[in-house]
Amino acid sequence: MTKVYTGGCLCGFIRISARSPRNPHTCSCTLCQKHTGAHSVRWVEFDTQDVQWTGKGGKPATWRSSEFSSRAFCPRCGSSIGAIDDAPTVALLTGCFDDAVHAEFTSTDNACQGSA
Ligand SMILES: [Zn+2]
Ligand SMILES: [Zn+2]
């Protein structure tokens, strides 16, 4: 069975259930820094169809950050969740996950190029 990754925001309004992670990477671009308040963040991507928003809040709130992507966050507690692309990709910040899955995702320093 495919492993399911669960996670969510600080207050629990936004909950995530995702499978089949790909393209883990870190980023320290200005966009990521402003979005999260952190100097450097770690990402992992999923196909849109492999991500379910299972919390009361449904899909996270978004802010259009580039021509092809929007930054996602919890409208209630303000936690950064990730980025929802127009292409069928959802990128999640690995800090959102319930378990310490960081080690599973071997990071390549493959910045999001400040464009997502
Ligand atoms: Zn929240
Ligand atoms: Zn970035």
UniProtKB/TrEMBL annotation:
Domain of life: Bacteria
Lyase in keyword set: yes
Residue stretches making up the CENP-V/GFA domain: 5-116
PROSITE patterns linked to this entry: CENP_V_GFA
Keyword Zinc: yes
Keyword annotations from UniProtKB, A to Z: Lyase, Metal-binding, Zinc
Pfam families tied to this protein: GFA
Family, similarity comment: Belongs to the Gfa family.
Descriptive protein name: GFA family protein
Organism from which the protein derives: Citrobacter enshiensis
